[in-house]
Each structure stands twice: as C-alpha cells, then as structure tokens.
Design brief:
The chain has two domains: 30 residues; 54 residues, Orthogonal Bundle (Multidrug-efflux Transporter Regulator, Chain: A, Domain 2), CATH 1.10.1660. The N and C termini lie far apart (74 Å). The chain has 104 residues and is mostly helical. A three-stranded antiparallel β-sheet has the order 1-3-2. It is built from four helices and three strands, in the order αβααββα.
C-alpha cells in the first residue's frame, strides 16, 4: 500500500470541496423530489408562478382579479399550487392548425 502525504491546508481544502459537492447534490435531490411530488401539494409564491408562466407580477394580479387562477394568501404573500399554474399554462397554448395550401 502506498502512503501519500499532503499538507494539512491542502487536505482541509479538499475536504471543504467534498463537503460543498455533497451539499450541492443533497440540495438538487431535494429540488427534484419537490418537482416530482403531487402538483396539488406543491405551493409556489407569486414570483415563481409568474416565472413559470412568463408573465409579470401585474399580470398575475389581473389573473387573480379576473378569477382565472385560484390562489391562497398566507402571511401577506400570494401562493398558487403547481397544479393550478400548470392548468393555466396548458390552457393558454395556441395551436397552429394551418392546412397545407391554405392561407396563413
């Protein structure tokens, strides 16, 4: 068996990097678990929902006012379920049903 000797500072840096990689992987696993969870149980704040829908916060307010999206207010913050955001997203898809030879 070979013995490798390194300075203690170099060893500490290696250990720190390994710990950082470990925490990064754990964080990603947690995020993936959240995304794979039941969409009706995952709550998004106003900013995250707007980012998914690619609209402004003002548009989110208009959607709430018009009753186009259901929401909850907790602690002076607006929350939406992931299922509701997905429903709204799929409802706003514009299909291109152009026929060949037809007018655009």
């Amino acid at each position: 068996m070979k013995v490798i000797v390194i300075e203690s500072e170099a060893y500490k840096k290696i250990v720190q990097k390994i710990e950082w990689i470990y925490s990064y992987i754990k964080k990603r696993e947690k995020e993936n678990a959240t995304l794979q969870a039941n969409p009706s149980e995952v709550w998004l704040n106003d900013q995250d929902a707007a980012a998914i829908l690619r609209v402004s916060k003002r548009t989110m307010q208009r959607l709430r006012s018009n009753g186009e999206i259901t929401y909850s207010i907790r602690g002076n913050k607006v929350w939406y379920t992931l299922a509701e955001v997905k429903r709204l997203l799929s409802g706003r898809v514009v299909r291109n049903d152009k026929q060949e030879g037809g007018k655009p």
